[in-house]
Design a protein that fits this description.
5-stranded antiparallel beta sheet, 2 domains, 12-stranded antiparallel beta sheet, Jelly Rolls, single chain
């Protein structure tokens, strides 16, 4: 037997309207952020702390995207209503800063969606895109770059990047940031000059004076075509190689490097692929940043996530479709 019922239905992104419908046609009162989005997934935060810079696999949502991922949105439902959070896509992963309260959803599939909010400052623990630094600036307000005369902000076709040239070691730890468990990343491109061009990222350093450097470096070695995680101990030269992987390193190609350090392990990822992994050995500092050697290299989009160990296993729940009464 059919019965007529009166239900609450979400209208757009805010408020409810009363709708009378057939019980067989509309049997839900689930609030939906915006009916222009056809699908959503609950986000299980797995007990992650509030304000955590989360990273989770969103391939299921991206597969349903109608506009190349721009319609994949992170929404938090709270007692005061729903709001959209800044998020960044990294391959098949979504990264966002978890709110202090509320239920999290990942919405997808809206062919008319505009650009999403994606401010890195609202997502990561620390970030620098160099767009607000003056051309010619050595970045001293953000990095303890050594030697300071070899680092500078330059224009790259309308995009500002951070360039370092010169022989010898060039550590550039992030000023005022010390984290034992962290993920540091940057885009890197080897230029036409330099010598060995052993360039990459720095983590777990306790001393970054070039002659007495202590810490781990994840590097792409352009002159010999391989990737490594190496450890400098009191400035030892060459550093101790803890892990390596043979691969071509081309000049003028941008690479996405990510160095993950937590607990007793270091991982180096290149373009989203794990390239090297090693247990921590001697160095146990908390400085992190950039590192180049005998070089001509550009950096851009430096990002840091302060992570917990083990990192929360954040995951998507089951696929939900927009209710018919919406």
């Amino acid at each position: 037997m059919r019965r007529s019922i009166t239900m609450l239905a979400l209208v757009g992104a805010c408020g409810f309207s009363v709708r009378t419908g057939d019980l067989d046609a509309c049997t839900t009162t689930r609030p939906w952020w915006d009916a222009r989005w056809a699908h959503r997934f609950a986000i299980d935060t797995a007990g992650a702390p509030a304000s955590y810079p989360a990273r989770f696999d969103a391939s299921a949502a991206l597969a349903l995207s109608a506009v190349g991922g721009d319609d994949v949105r992170v929404i938090v439902d709270t007692a005061s209503g729903a709001r959209e959070l800044d998020r960044v896509l990294d391959g098949s992963f979504v990264e966002t800063r978890l709110p202090t309260a509320g239920t999290l959803w990942l919405y997808t599939t809206n062919p008319a969606a505009g650009l999403p909010p994606s401010d890195p400052e609202a997502v990561y623990t620390w970030s620098e895109s160099f767009e607000t630094l003056a051309l010619g600036d050595n970045g001293a307000a953000r990095f303890d770059a050594q030697p300071t005369t070899d680092w500078r902000v330059v224009d790259d076709g309308g995009n500002r990047i951070y360039r370092v040239t010169g022989a010898g070691r060039h550590p550039a730890p992030i000023a005022g940031l010390a984290l034992a468990n962290a993920e540091v990343r940057a885009r890197l491109r080897v230029g036409p000059g330099g010598g060995q061009n052993h360039n990459g990222l720095l983590a777990r350093a306790s001393n970054t004076v070039p002659t007495t450097l202590d810490g781990y470096v994840g590097q792409m070695l352009e002159d010999v075509n391989y990737v490594r995680i190496a450890e400098y101990i009191d400035g030892i030269s060459p550093p101790v190689e803890r892990a390596r992987f043979d691969r071509a390193v081309d000049r003028t190609t941008w690479y996405a490097m990510r160095m993950w350090v937590a607990g007793g392990v270091i991982e180096l990822h290149i373009d989203g692929v794990l390239a090297a992994r090693t247990p921590l050995a001697t160095s146990n500092g908390s400085l992190l940043g950039l590192f180049a050697h005998d070089t001509d290299v550009d950096y851009d989009d430096v990002r840091v996530r302060a992570i917990v160990d083990p990192e929360p296993a954040i995951a998507l729940g089951a696929l939900e479709d927009v209710p018919p009464c919406e």
